[in-house]
Amino acid sequence: MPVTPSQLAQIDGVLEQGSAEGATLTALRQIGGGLTATRCDASDLADEAPFRSYARCMLYLLDGRGHCMRITSDPEDATGLVVVAKG
């Protein structure tokens, strides 16, 4: 199920104030639509461009529809979220 514009607005609201911490991930998971939310170290995604960047974190979209998960820049392909702390 793709990430909708409404969900993106909710994600922005959470991440504009949040960081890559447990409470933020819980809030993202509550947005619904079956989205997963996880965090990882910036070095794990060093070769990827973030979908969006916020004051304290970056957002990557995860496409888990195939055999292997991959980072995507297309909300239509996204099945999950990855949050990475800045700094």
Write the topology of this structure.
Blueprint: H1 5-17, H2 22-29, E1 36-39, E2 52-53, E3 57-63, E4 70-72, E5 80-85
Parallel strand pairs: 1-5
Antiparallel strand pairs: 2-3, 3-4, 3-5
How does this structure look, described?
The protein has 87 residues and is α+β, with helices and mostly antiparallel strands. It has one domain. 24% of the residues lie in helices and 25% in strands. The protein contains two helices and five strands. It has helices at residues 5-17, 22-29, and strands spanning 36-39, 52-53, 57-63, 70-72, 80-85. Strands 1, 2, 3, 4 and 5 form a five-stranded mixed β-sheet that branches. The mean pLDDT is 92.
Q: Report the uncertain regions.
A: none
Q: Cα-atom Rg, whole angstroms?
A: 12 Å
Largest sheet: 5 strands, mixed
The run of helices and strands is HHEEEEE
The oligomeric state is single chain
Strand content: 25-35%
Mean of all residue-level pLDDT scores: 92
Question: Which shape, going by the Cα principal axes?
Answer: globular
The structure class reads alpha+beta
How many angstroms separate the termini?
A: 32 Å
Q: How much helix, percentage-wise, in residues?
A: 10-25%
Tally of alpha and pi helices? 2
List the main descriptive attributes of the protein structure presented here:
87 residues, alpha+beta, 5-stranded mixed β-sheet
